[in-house]
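Lab manual, section 2.4: Encoding a predicted structure.

Procedure: take the sequence of the chain (341 residues), apply the prediction step described in section 2.3, and record the output as structure tokens. A sample record is shown.
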Amino acid sequence: MTMPLIIPIFIMHRGCPHRCTFCDQQKAAGPYPDDVSETFFRQTVLSHLQHIKKKPDQVQIAFYGGNFTGMPRQDQTRLLKYAQPFLEAGGVSALRISTRPDCLDKERLDFLKEYGVQIVEIGAQSLVDDVLRRAERGHTAGNVDAAVQLLKANGFEVGVHLMAGMPGDSPEGFARSVARTIAMQPHTVRIHPTLVFTGTPLERDHRNGSYEPLTLDEAVLLCKSALLKFTAAGIPVIRIGLQTTPEMEKRGTVIAGPYHPAFRFLVEASIFFDRAASLLSRGDFQEKAVVFSVCPKEQSAFRGLKNENVRKLQNRFGLSGIRVVPDPAQPAGTLHVHCDI
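Recorded output:
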């Protein structure tokens, strides 16, 4: 799957019937205006288009950070009209929105189609009803299933958002959410671990001891398992971990939780470590030097952060050395190992 260039326009909680316990878009997305003007919209889109080094197959404008179909219809129309000149000129190929699963019906979908919306991302977060209630989501897992099927039946590309480590969730509960999402067969998925932002109800719960976030290692393990399952099911995971913003990097913004600016890299590096360890466990490599052949674009993920995978493999299996050789003939996601001569 070739990823499009997505130009995000954040609508900052607009259309949300209430605030979920974990959510603060100002901190997660940065200092976007409360209301998007046409001037701001045009400047944002043009800035992205002007800085494209290599034109991708698709360029999409995305309305994120709120509940698009929950906004008053005149606000939806105004924002979608801002995008029309870019669609008509051919610089942008499609529009995408994010919304709640309980704010969709046939009439809303017909309206979106009129303005060139082709992709709808559903903020499910979990498919366990008890978890959804505790996070004050205000919808059910059944709403998610119904929304995905309605969107697919009406020709939309569908994305589903999941969060690991939600209040009241467990590894088993998250695994059920993953399995149920796979059964729905969306076109794409996004996953990120739950973070505790300052000023949210979740901060209060964390400080009074009623919520304990995942550790970084726990989050990597859960998201690794999910990525492997979605990949095996043929469902692309287009993001793992929140997009890092300058606001999130400020001291005191994220007060707890498994935040890491390269979270997806950690997940993919962990997968490569497991694959390498499996290969080494099948042979007699004790006190020998070995060579791993990897797809060139995956060399960094194989090595891990600061070469950590290489050091851990060498220590665990008593190797005298490890060489990593990029091989264009090596299929992505696979490894080959042999003794160094």
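Check your result against the sample. The chain has a mean pLDDT of 92.
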